[in-house]
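Write out the bound-state structure for 2-phosphoglycolic acid.
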Amino acid sequence: MKQKLIAGNWKMNGSLIANAALVHGVQQGLASALGAKRVQVVVCVPAVYLSQVQQLVQGSGIDLGSQDVSAHEQGAFTGEVSAAMLKDFAVRYAIVGHSERRQCHGETDEQVALKAQHALSAGITPIVCVGETLAEREAGKTEDVVKRQLAAVIHTNGHCISEIVVAYEPVWAIGTGQTASPTQAQAVHAVLRSQLKAATEHSDRVRILYGGSMNAANAAELLSQPDIDGGLIGGAALKVADFLTIISAAAR
Ligand code: PGA
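---
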């Protein structure tokens, strides 16, 4: 069985003081949350705090992630952070194509695919986010949307597609407290799994995370679904006790 992955997406939250308290709290509770099991735990932090959190997580078993990566290698791209720069800070995972970036920054499927490509070529695992809006779900387009989003990444990264992580994040569930039911989530995960299966013989290696109002109360049931291999956690990753409860649900 694949090791589950629990990734916190801090979004634009934190401060030097708050980050230290959060990471220390998680570190202190990690061993008892895990018991004898192993779960890969990642925190995806704002770019300016990568250096701080790199020091904080050293030797703790928590991996460092970024929330984005540039679709370009280097040069005149004001404000962007390249994959090579992330690598300098021991970043192991990079979220790409989060719906907030697709919506607020107009990121296209093709740009997301390029971001994944740059991450992979720097040895960073992209966490590729896909997910439908409420209007798309209500129009019966969920499957088409997530398949289109993933297809772009497969098209650009075919030969190393088994190295990615996918996160299914229904846009209507993000930050709303409205979670997809385990059945709804599992149905989409199964679609993504079969799309990956058609793309690579190593599809069983790919972890498909669920994200969207996953919390301490609903994590165990979501994580027990056959195709849910972990979670991408926003709000609940900012609270030590909640994040630890989710980690321990993944360790069951
Ligand atoms: P949420 O965010 O857990 O606060 O809904 C998840 C995400 O956007 O990654």
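---
The longest helix spans residues 16-34.
The pocket of 2-phosphoglycolic acid is lined by residues 9, 169, 174-175, 211-214, 232-236 (CB under 6 Å).
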